[in-house]
Amino acid sequence: MENELKDDPCSSEEAFSEKPKKMKAKAKGKTKSQREGKEKTHRKMKASEEEIMETEGSGDRRSHVNVKEEPKEDPDFVTEKKGKKRKRKADNTDGLLSSAEAPLPKKKKKKVADGQENASTAKQKKMKEKKEKVKKEEGERPVSTKKKKTKEEIEAARALKIKKKEEEEKQRWRWWEEEKYENGIKWKFLEHKGPYFPPAYQPLPDDVKFYYNGEPVKLSLPAEEVALYFAQMLDHEYTTKEVFRNNFFKDWRKEMTLEERQLIMDLKKCDFGELHAMHKEKVEARKNLSKEEKLVNKEANQKIVDEYGFCVLDHHRERIGNFKIEPPGLFRGRGDHPKQGMLKKRIRPEDVIINCSKESRIPEAPAGHKWKEVRHDKTVTWLASWTENVQGSCKYVMLNANSKLKGEKDWEKYEVARKLKTCVDAIRTQYQEDLKSKQMGTRQRAVALYFIDKLALRAGNEKEEGETADTVGCCSLRVEHITLHDALDDQKCVVEFDFLGKDCIRYYNKVPVTKRVFKNLKLFMENKQGGDDLFDRLNTASLNKHLSSLMPGLTAKVFRTYNASITLQQQLKELSNMKDNVPEKLLSYNRANRAVAVLCNHQRAPPKSFDQSMANLQAKIDSRKEQLDLAKKELKQAKKEAKGSSDNKLLVVVEKKKKAVQRCEEQLLKMEVQATDREENKQIALSTSKLNYLDPRISVAWCKNMEVPLDKIYNKTLRDKFAWAVDMTELDFVF
DNA sequence: GCTGGAACTTAGGATGATGACA
DNA sequence: TGTCATCATCCTAAGTTCCAGC
Question: What does CATH list as the number for A2-72+406-557?
Fold first, then answer.
């Protein structure tokens, strides 16, 4: 290795003579909470041991071994780390909003111990009595109050459903058959009702009290509202975290009156028990509503959706994605977010900017209020926006994923990714060459690109220290995030990655790389400490600038889309078999999908009831096996009895038993396939890649070719979102 | 070339709705 | 019919990219 380094055309001295673009970070110790956060995310990484990558070779990219193994104690966590990053604008939490609001029905106190009934049990009793009355009137016949549907009625319902579907299809805006606007124009006419505001806060009932130091304290409304936000979260782990509690307490005190502030000095002395109980009761009561009451609520919600959930865009009615203003509450940042627990303030119309056509009916602000601004910008897609107080970022009301604006952008995204296919070989050749460059910056860019291409890493923008959790992507990787192994598990030049990526999801992977990459990494790490940037002469802007010079529209993100889609296509080709039955074909599809999810590191927390549900399924499988054995025995017996006999009855029995065996076998297979699929999916989220990275035309074409109904892999939302692909994809589509 | 903000996509968890099964 | 599991949808945080202004 040393010799290789000597022979390297890029001597360290020469290469480092360039001025580093990024300042070296100063060492800083990791906090305990950071350490705990990272340890916690380890649970997410136990997932599949499945390795779906090809071996590295000429032109092969997917060569790493994606080993997700139980992590060992990370010594880095107790050593020093370095910080970097820019200082940011001051937070504006001081812009105090008062009006504490949020709906709360009057408390119905439930004292089961005292023998009192709660509302829901009373209601159930009433229903029961009603039913019994019906029974009596009908002469004590044990009949159901629900009328059984006749065959004709079932048929009619089915026909209605088909008709509705056809109607929907007829009404669908086939925007993909129209010309696109130019010069950044997104729409020509836009009309909407403005966003929907959450209801005002309803004060606590008199019998629900907050206690401080054991004494009841009547809080002012603003303080009471914020106290309730905390009380509602008491069952959540958040409220046990020191950072969350401190941030909450600090912001809560800002909402208090002077007197309250002087009295309430210690969060530990606060008792939110009654508030918490009231909240739980409310949730429980909501769950126990009768069918009729639920229907009333549903209709009320539908009314809101009908009124606020749609807009008119260029003469077409389009669904809005998030027409509701985010309600106030406590900020739930992911991982070890330094701002978790801060108060997310109530948004008023005076904070909201409306965007619509000049010639449209301008939405009216709620009574007694006015909008911050009304503008008519046709070059953007948002309908309303506001700035949130915790991070100072903009929030937007935008259209639903099935809208023209979103669909067009999505289609374009996959077309750019397909375009990459035509030049990816040249780009790979180029960055392989760049690994030998005399310029350190060029070498770093080449290695980063190698990772982005091979491992589907995100670009990794720089982040501001203290503003967000400590997460990284490719360009922002630090020395402490990788470990180099000359040899590991019979493989040479292995890079071990261990870092927190987007949403604090841990990325852990051991990847064999080419000698040249390995050697470069050693070079980049020379004379650096754990907290220093691995790629100190690279940032996402310069990387993307370079990429766009290689292909118009090419950015780091495109590689993720391209590699996800091409992997799906390859895997489907490899795994699918026309002779399989539908459940087996679906298992193949899911496995291909899973390969992508593993590549993109899409993880989820295992469902809470996972073990129990697997045990239940296994029990069912065992029981079905017993049934099958029994059915087989019966078939054997029936055959024996029918042998040599011309009695038609006996032959019928044999046929019957044969069918029973067949049915049992089919059910057993289905269950076994389901168990395998579920187990393999335990910690892998398939939906993210399906929704964002996989060209839908690959899936549509696969369904057509494999004769699998599309609704087996795409639910209604996905079919709507990808209507353009469903409509235009032919059997022979190739990504 | 750097910085910060605007505009947009991507992401996992929470919640509500629906379906399967005893 | 009630319960439980699963699926679909909602919610909003956390990314990426682009661009204007210096």
Answer: 3.90.15.10
